[in-house]
Amino acid sequence: MSVKPFTDLSKMCVHTITTKPWNLVEAARHFSAAGVKGITVWRDALTGREIAESRRLITDYGLEIVSLCRGGFFPSVDATKRKAAIADNRKVIEEAQALGAPLIVLVCGSDPAQPLETSRQQIAEGIAAILPDAVAAGVKLAIEPLHPMYADSRSAINTLAQANDMAMEIRSPNLGVAVDVYHLWWDPALEGEISRCGENECLFAFHICDWNTPTVDILNDRAIMGEGCIPVRKIRGWVEAAGFRGFNEVEIFSTKYWQADQSQYLQKIIQAYKENS
Amino acid sequence: MSVKPFTDLSKMCVHTITTKPWNLVEAARHFSAAGVKGITVWRDALTGREIAESRRLITDYGLEIVSLCRGGFFPSVDATKRKAAIADNRKVIEEAQALGAPLIVLVCGSDPAQPLETSRQQIAEGIAAILPDAVAAGVKLAIEPLHPMYADSRSAINTLAQANDMAMEIRSPNLGVAVDVYHLWWDPALEGEISRCGENECLFAFHICDWNTPTVDILNDRAIMGEGCIPVRKIRGWVEAAGFRGFNEVEIFSTKYWQADQSQYLQKIIQAYKENS
């Protein structure tokens, strides 16, 4: 299979957390100046400003808002916390609507104090509870399976098969999945499950970055595409073969790069996007 | 399902690496004095002494040698290194035979410089190459699937399904799998795959420890059973339902506990073995 390199940035999106030291204004200005076309906004980037103003600011820079990160974190042994999580997710839906973000990425959550099966059940219940709000707001939700190393406390959904199963069970045009190469690259079933997303028309987002060897921090040691061992372009080929035509979202958590000059870092990302994605 | 707690240590084994600060003599003496019945020997514990002498030393303490850790690390982009790995694995087989260890655990390896599929192919080739030597030596080999967070450089075999598939494809009474709760607890297919091991009579080893939240080091931050979120006893129930009657091997890599008083640590492990395994 031959997947062509990108020759332009028309389908490139960057997450605000990727350049975490920048506030929303700085991120929008720099992304726009660099020719990046899409932005995914993390909730923390919205603080201190009316959402309508953030929306205007971003669109004035000619950027398309790809998604809002993140909803989820439904499970808890504590029923009060589960209720609070659902209320918070309804707030995220309102924020997405106000921002004009068509999609919310769900980091589903997990509670180490209870069995994974219980957390999975609570995730399904949480999604079912907020889905009508998402439909009413015209916002989509994407279940993002997280790497199994996050199964204890961040997500009990750890393979694309699980995410697909859950999306198909709840079933709604407003519910799909997000494929992040960092979380899923190791899975021998990945190509087949991406193809299944295509059949079910539930592939809503595609996130890219790379895996460092060695990985010195379980959370914040992600690499730029091409620096690690993930076959990003090959996986993009599967995603495109499944009919995906959306943005390629660069989502990198990196203590190392957050300490670097963010403009130079963004240029490095753009180069890697063209050469290794 | 109700799985009974252990009332004695007759099926308890400890890996020498669990109490890494102790040399082989110290480990054997302390394990024996504490009532532990089995020992799994890591190769580094064999240095500086004739293997026959290590064997005598261990058996004089009344300990049963459960397995030798570890063979494997077959894949490499470099053919010379692949050849060297096979030669080294033949040496491990000789060592196991000399030691009287009936089993070698295989940490299969992975090379981030090549696709996972290539690494998997090289693992199958490596095992096929050394299997006749293992048969001739009367030693068994266990494919140990490693957590997906080690897919880049430690093992391209990351689920029990993959290990079972490979064992079934190569097929020999001397080839089976090792189930380690740390690597596999998150997998929704685990119970079914353990049951499949039973049908295929290929479940050769069972390793236990626990998962810390948060995990601060990707390699050496494992917990004692009961300290984390892994349902160790539940998984032991599946393993026993699959017909496994071997040792329950405590294998903990922990920078934290390696710095502690090893005798107190061993007592803590024994208590956890009874209460939480």
Word description of this protein:
2 copies of one chain form a homodimer. The first copy, chain A, is of the alpha/beta class and 277 residues long. Chain A has a single domain, classed as Divalent-metal-dependent TIM barrel enzymes (TIM Barrel), CATH 3.20.20. Helices cover 43% and strands 17% of the residues of chain A. Chain A has 10 helices and 10 strands. An 8-stranded parallel β-barrel of chain A has the order 1-2-3-4-5-6-7-10, surrounded by 7 helices. In chain A, strands 8-9 form a two-stranded antiparallel sheet. In chain A, α5 runs parallel beside α7. Chains A and B meet through loops of A and loops of B.
Strand order of the largest sheet of chain A: 1-2-3-4-5-6-7-10
Instruction: Give the CA-CA distance, first to last residue of chain A.
Output: 14 Å
What is the number of independent domains of chain A?
A: 1
Oligomer: homodimer
Specify the CATH homologous superfamily of chain A.
Divalent-metal-dependent TIM barrel enzymes
CATH domain topology of chain A: TIM Barrel
Over the alpha carbons, how many angstroms does the gyration radius of chain A reach?
18 Å
Total number of helices of chain A: 10
Order of helices and strands of chain A: EHEHEHEHEHEHHEEEHEHH
Structural class per helix/strand content of chain A? alpha/beta
CATH architecture of chain A: Alpha-Beta Barrel
Q: What share of the residues of chain A lie within helices?
A: 40-55%
What is the CATH class of chain A?
Answer: Alpha Beta
